[in-house]
Amino acid sequence: MLEINETIMNKEISEVRRVYTNTDIQRKISDVLRNFNENELDEFCNKEYSKELFNLSFSLLVKYHKKDSIDSKNELIKRNGLNRWTYKYNIESKNYIYAISTQWYKRHDEFVQRWLNKNN
Questions:
Q1: Dihedrals phi, psi of 100, to nearest 5 degrees
Q2: Could you give the CA distance from residue 70 to residue 8 in angstroms, rounded to a whole number?
Q3: Which of 4, 76, 98, 100 lies 20 to 30 A from 23 at CA?
Q4: pTM of the model
Q5: Which stretches of the chain drop beneath a pLDDT of 50?
Q6: Which long-range contacts (CB under 8 A, 24 or more apart) does 40-46 make?
Q7: Nearest-CA neighbor of 100 among 77, 118, 116?
Q8: Distance separating alpha carbons of residues 73 and 106, to the nearest angstrom
């Protein structure tokens, strides 16, 4: 019985292991996206485009004007039915800032890894 429990625990532990932490993903993706122009960044604000690349059910980025207040930014996120965004790894363009999602799970790892390999 102990052997079976150890096998189950080992399987559960291996399923939890991640290629990257959520913070790693945010940092690595935003580092790459800093080299993209505004039109390219706008594509990542599209839910379907984000799903195709990263298997997300929401857009990778949220775009807001640099002059927007924190309340405006939060309202934009709420209005779009989004949550869990960070301004820590912002990507800035001429007039806009793009916030990146913090919602990453193990099921996204292979998509992230593939995209990073392609874009690094």
A1: -110, 150
A2: 46
A3: 76
A4: 0.78
A5: 11, 14
A6: 41/91, 41/93, 41/98, 44/98, 45/98
A7: 77
A8: 28
